[in-house]
Design goal:
five-stranded mixed β-sheet; 11 strands; about 270 residues
Length: about 270
């Protein structure tokens, strides 16, 4: 059968897609929006099977690659829908859309369902508010081989389209989970994972801490950092040396610096 073609931006299916920009709708449906050729390709590489893939040939920057992705999604069992330019621009959530958008299962899992490898490196993000920072940390986690990223007391959800966009789709390639701070700390302690908290209130540089074993690097919210409760339960506290006037780094930058120090130490062992 030929693909369904939608040209009207007033189509009800498109209106339903737009509602997935709201967290409540994403959580109740268990689905979210994934936009972009590169991001969707990475998600499919990670085993994601879209519920539906929407494409607009007129907007594709690379028609050959776009057509190949559409066919790949079709073979995976996804419904394929062609959209007219105006209709696609109705549902696209980023500037300069490239003609690929999918409705996919929301990323994320329950901590109880996660099996950590021996000597795992984990990234723990407590109360991080900005989707862009979460996305940037996911790209670091993907590049560094982090075994799990936990959002503790999350302000946003992993299925937020802006998290997906800023992560370049790596939210589907890196195991991610959400939990309360207490649940996260308890779960890590039960598995022998030491928590290394980043804070300026310590004399220990991040390069002086042993990050070679099972370790969770913990970072806090953009404004306040880690909570007192989180700092009290951490086995170690480390700082990143700074000589400028500012007293803190962007949280995603801080996470990347400490995570890659752990990678360096592990390679040196």
């Amino acid at each position: 059968m030929p693909d369904l073609v939608i040209t009207s931006p007033a189509n009800q299916r498109l209106k339903d897609l737009v509602t997935l920009r709201r967290r409540r709708v994403r959580e109740s449906s268990g689905t979210t929006l994934l936009e972009g050729l590169e991001e969707t390709t990475l998600a499919l590489d990670a085993g994601v099977v879209p519920h539906a893939l929407f494409h607009c040939p007129d907007l594709m920057l690379d028609p050959g690659a776009g057509a190949a992705l559409v066919e790949r999604a079709r073979r995976s069992g996804a419904e394929v829908v062609e959209l007219g330019r105006t209709a696609f621009e109705k549902v696209a959530y980023r500037e300069g859309p490239d003609g690929i958008l999918a409705r996919v299962p929301s990323p994320g899992r329950v901590l109880a369902d996660v099996d950590l490898p021996e000597g795992a490196l984990v990234l723990l993000c407590e109360g991080v508010e900005k989707p862009g920072n979460l996305g940037a940390m996911l790209r670091t986690a993907d590049a560094a081989g982090v075994a799990l990223v936990i959002a503790a007391d999350p302000v946003t959800d992993w299925g937020n389209p802006n998290v997906i966009r800023s992560s370049k789709g790596t939210v589907f390639s890196v195991p991610v989970a959400s939990a309360s701070t207490d649940e996260a700390w308890t779960w890590l302690a039960e598995r022998g994972v030491a928590v290394v908290a980043t804070t300026p209130d310590t004399d220990v540089d991040h390069t002086d801490a042993d990050l070679t074993g099972p370790v969770a690097v913990a970072v806090g919210s953009e404004k306040y950092g880690l909570t007192d409760a989180a700092l009290a339960r951490a086995q170690h506290r480390v700082r990143i040396p700074m000589v400028g006037q500012a007293n803190s780094l962007n949280v995603a930058t801080s996470a990347a610096i400490v995570v890659y120090e752990a990678v360096r130490q592990r390679r040196a062992v």
